[in-house]
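Hello,

Our lab assistant flagged a job as stuck in the queue for most of the afternoon. It eventually completed. Since we weren't sure the result was trustworthy after the delay, we are filing this so someone can double-check. Below is the sequence as submitted and the structure that was eventually returned. Let us know if re-running is recommended.
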Amino acid sequence: MPVYSRSKHDPSDGSAIYATRGGAFRIGNYDGTVAETTNLLCAYQYVDLTKTLRGQTLIGSDKKAPIMLIKTSDTGCEMSRHVLNFSTVSDLSHVSPSEIVTVLNSATPTMPEMIAEFNAVENHVNLRCTNAGVRITEVFGLIAGALGFGGGGPFTSYGSYFFDFITDDSTISITPANVMSAGTTAQLMGGYRNTETGVIINGSLIGVDYAINVKKMSPLFEQVVTGSELVFIDNGRGSDADFIPLTGVRIPKSVRMEMYNLRDRHATEGTTDVGDIEGLVAEHVYSGAVIVADDSRGAVSLDSFNFTLQARVYQDDAGNNIGQPEKLYRGPEDPFFKCLTVALENRPLISMLTATPATSIIVQTPMTINANTGGNENNVIVIPAAASGYTVEITEPMQSPLGCKFAYDDAAKRIRITAESTKGNESVTVKLTNADGTTQSATLALTVV
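-- returned structure --
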């Protein structure tokens, strides 16, 4: 009889669940569906791009506007900045979905592996990723929200993107409460001896209400959960923000939010270190309604931000009903959730959006290179680094412990990596400096085989 060994993170044996690592939240499409790589919707109506708020316009006098594209896969996350040109649009106060398709597909530089398509039946635009290996696509920018990404409109959305309460330990608590229908008993009583005949009808699970309490608050997230107006104003010293709630006759949009709540799994025997985990449980809510709670303010105290996420049955774009939340049991090295946390870290989205355009801002792109073992010619990688307007500095290491050599070709704007004979894992940090002094850092992960 064969003997089977259990993997350390085998979920069938059970684990001790430790608190919550944190949550990542995202507003879905205008129709309540999840914003997926093949279902990222906008322009479900004609769009007015002539609107202004506090002196801020949606597009520049040159009829151009920047937009950020963020793509996450099992192998890494890549952010890129693109410029949309509306000079071919005849009436900026009445931009049609078909015109928006043309503008998105003509972005400068072209959005890699993305194609915009018009669905005449649903009367909306779908910005679809053609790479099946990409797990998450996000778009960010004032123009992204104005076009309807994230289900909003001009100044009521900055697009469809995840908000991070995981990597900086800013989640205080995410507490679920099951919502059940009331059970009942059908009952008859005998008239002579008062005998009872009854049938118990159990209540059923309707959904889950999450009471969420977080430490940090930003105008972007407050806009996400309330659907209010927001504009960032460049004052020359950085960006100020004006937040204007929609009240009275100006009714905010209905907010439907996606959530990943990550929780660590530990061994049930003995005492383990907080970092020694068997895996994680990811509670995934596709789409839930948001109710914002009142603030609690007092002397000598710090405010926390509180809201409720109501998860019920979710219906996807194909009409299938899906119970919520899904609980995904994964190992500690699960590539998707490792990459999700990497994608959420250090995302100064406003700074990237307003910076001088770069062809590609690489956050994490794991690469494999062959070691130079006796005349091997496949031990060199040349990758693009940045477009004109940036200077690039390789901050660490100039020569790695593995013997890898990193060099930057300023004329060609590319990084050249040469591997020696030693095998293993290495990384290099690249610093991009803009002409105005703003900086961005990128980490390139490398495996020498």
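-- support follow-up --
The delay was a queue issue, not a problem with the job. The result is valid. The chain has five helices and 31 strands. Residues 335-344 form the longest helix (10 residues).
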